[in-house]
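User: Mind token order:
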Amino acid sequence: MESKDLEAEIHPLKNDEGKGPEGLANCTQKEVAPKKLKRLSQWRTAAFFLSLFLCLTVVFAFSFIIPCPVRPISQRMWSRTYEDAATYAFLATRDVNKDRVQDVLFAFKAVSAGSNGTNSSCSSQGLTSPCAFLAAHSGTNGSTLWQWPVAQELLLMDCSGEHEHTPACLIVGEPDILAAIDLETGQTLWWEAANFRPNSTVLSPLLRIPDVNGDGTSDLLVFTETGEEVQVHFYSGKHGTQIGSIGTLHLPGRVQGRVSHLMQVTPTGSHYVLLYTAKTLYAYSLKALCHMAFNPPAHSSPGLTQDPLWEMAIDGATHQITLLSTGEIRYLTKMPVSSSADFLVSRSNMIELVDGQRLGSMWVTETPHILSEPVIGSYRSDEVDVLIVSRDSSRKKVMVVEGTSGNIEWEADLQLLLGTDSPRPATLSTADRRSVFLFWGLYQRDANGTGSWDGAQQQLYLFHPALPNVLLETSNGTEHIVAFEGVLFERSRHACYVLLTGPQVGQAPGQVTLSKRKLKEAIASSRVIWLNQVAQDSEQSVRERFLRLRYHSPR
């Protein structure tokens, strides 16, 4: 027995030799299994290294081989000067060179633009010198993208739309021409005779309207005035040809004076033209104007409808709208609410908000003499408020009026600068859904001072509702300001202001300067003014709060 046990210890596999085929099969399976596992492990290792190699290849390709888009480096401030030039009160921003940064468009009148980097001249377009030029400057560094003679004299301009999916600028000029300019190149897309009456005055603005002639392109509407008669002209937006007109638009009860207009779209999608004189407000549906201008009737378009509520509120015989406020009508301003067509009526001594659904008065607020068209902003988050600059005796008042109630939420007094025209204020939306308000003037530091400042210097002031007791005093200048805009040059960033200075419109030529400056640069060198004369914090901490503001591009 002991010998058998010893034999098993010496030859442990010997006992299996006599078990026949079953024992042999089990042995074979035990030998094959480790080989399969080893082969599977090798494939897994190969797949891992192959995946790692592919990932590294992609990373190196994007890092070194495929160039990344170069973000344009924008200068903090730039300025461009035109000598011996006259100005037009026009300034616009569009991305002309497709670098995702807004560029600056403006118009001037000169003999030639050759000294500014091109050889363009009036004669190249068959015009006599001097003539009107349209110029585009890069928003990043102010370099000239293009400049081109467009008319003998510029009357109206609108660079907000497109022509067959191409950004375009529409102009009305003398001698009675209507043209579309390609904003990417400055070249003329079409140029047509406007066929206005002799000695007529073109009324601002130029209106873009829905397609009324069935060619698939939105069309144009121009109002002119000859003596006391108002004419209406329809033009094809595709070719510029005249497609209809109204010889005389009857405005009952009109007194002598200027006529202006505004296009409104009602909540039902109907288009109406609001025409206003010093004393009266009129409303005509685009459908009614088309029926007067076209024979046979115009092409059926979604915009050529009439709103039942508006038709009930408009006097059927005179086309007048009854308002609660009285006094000379100075401006009509759209309220930016997509679900309604509310508009603000600014009179000489009061403002009135009109309901865009039923044309009823929502509120009336008395104000001193209004100096410029109100601008829209937000004093409180997600509210629509109105910034008004007015004159009260020898003072200049800046007020923020609540859009829902007409209550004055904030106001400040500035000095009234004799002989100096301040430009229209501007607003920029911030990430907290409020606004930075920008306006020009001169703050009265002496609380006892009552007189006007007999001088031309004025300052640019910044105000944000988060600091209602603070004004930031930034840039100053003595040049006449032709146009001023607050602009976000890139989406939700790069907040700047653009300034056009030079001779007053219609005066003799002189030096015209176009400049851009970032708000951060202006804030860093600004002076802090405490409106109640009691400092609540250090000036540097106030500047830092303004510098930390983030901006938001409106939709």
Helices lie at 2-10, 21-65, 286-293, 308-313, 519-524, 539-547. The longest strand covers residues 77-94.
